[in-house]
Amino acid sequence: MSKSNGFFGEFKKFITRGNVLDMAIGVIIGAGFSAIVNSLVKDIFNPIIGVLTGGQDFSALKIILKPAVGDAAEVAIRYGLFINAIVNFLLIAFFLFLVVKAFNNFKDIAEELTAKKECEAAAQPVAPPKKAEDVVLLEEIRDLLKVKKS
Question: What does DSSP assign to residue 74?
Answer without folding.
Answer: P
